[in-house]
Amino acid sequence: MPKSSAKPATPKFRRILLKLSGEALRASGSHETITPEIAQQMAEDIQSVHSLGVEIGIVIGGGNIWRGLSASHRGMERTTADYMGMLATVINGLALQSTLEALGLQTRVQTAIRMDAVAESFIRRKAVRHLEQGRIVIFVAGTGNPFFSTDTAAALRANEIGADVILKATKVDGIYTADPMKDPTAKKFDRITHGEALQRRLNVMDSTAFSLCQDNRMPIVVFNFFTPGALRQVVLGEHVGTLVTPE
């Protein structure tokens, strides 16, 4: 048989930090905290990128279980509410780990709050070594501190592990001039600089996370994770979502 002339797919990025929201694990309108079918699809999308040889770190939120800021607005003491939110991310991280490992992938969960019976404590050098060995590292418990979001944890971990980019998975296909769900005239940016996004007050990440990315010249791609094949397309350098660059 003649050999195929198709060139192997070449990823644009060597090492990525994928930011997933906890709410993405739950089907819209579902009473389940975690929808197994969605977790399975997430894992398969991540597997398709891992098969390209890309090193993958993941930060996952906990909004499907608990949102600390919302609870504090309803009267709960903020520090306690935030710690509860951090524990929610651990649950999601373990669920994602189990689903990934069912596909045959090697993973490690590293937590910012020590819980030796459940996960490794976060150690930067150890995390980098896991990545070099082809393991997917799931970072949970945020930064380990109250008053900081998982967006900030993603920005922090991305810089600590030397990621090439933060891939922020959302339910919208990029960054718009306004909320496209509320304003039909909103226009999408294909590319924008950190400075422009900050000047326009666009909701890319919370201000602490975004400032950390800007200060360390960390690019961000905002894309719709639920578009079939979108994650793989982003990693291959195709024009998907919105790219936020230093300049």
* Rg of Cα set: 18 Å
Strand content: 15-25%
Q: What is the spatial order of strands in the main beta sheet?
A: 4-3-5-2-1-6-10-11-9
CATH class: Alpha Beta
Largest sheet, if any? 9 strands, mixed
What does it look like?
By secondary structure, this protein is α/β, with parallel strands linked by helices. It has a single domain, classed as Carbamate kinase (3-Layer(aba) Sandwich). Helix content is 36%, strand content 19%. It contains eight helices and eleven strands. The strands form two sheets. A nine-stranded mixed β-sheet has the order 4-3-5-2-1-6-10-11-9, with helices on both faces. Strand 1, helix 1 and strand 2 form a beta-alpha-beta unit. Helix 1 packs across helix 3 and helix 5 runs parallel beside helix 7. The chain is globular and about 45 Å long.
Keyword list:
single chain, 247 residues, alpha/beta, Carbamate kinase, 9-stranded mixed sheet, two-stranded antiparallel ribbon, 19% strand, globular
SSE map:
Blueprint: E1 15-20, H1 36-50, E2 55-60, H2 68-73, H3 78-102, E3 107-111, E4 120-121, H4 124-132, E5 136-140, H5 150-161, E6 165-170, E7 175-176, E8 188-189, E9 191-193, H6 194-199, H7 207-215, E10 220-224, H8 230-235, E11 242-245
Parallel strand pairs: 1-2, 1-6, 2-5, 3-4, 3-5, 6-10, 9-11
Antiparallel strand pairs: 7-8, 10-11
Helix pairs in contact: 1-3, 5-7
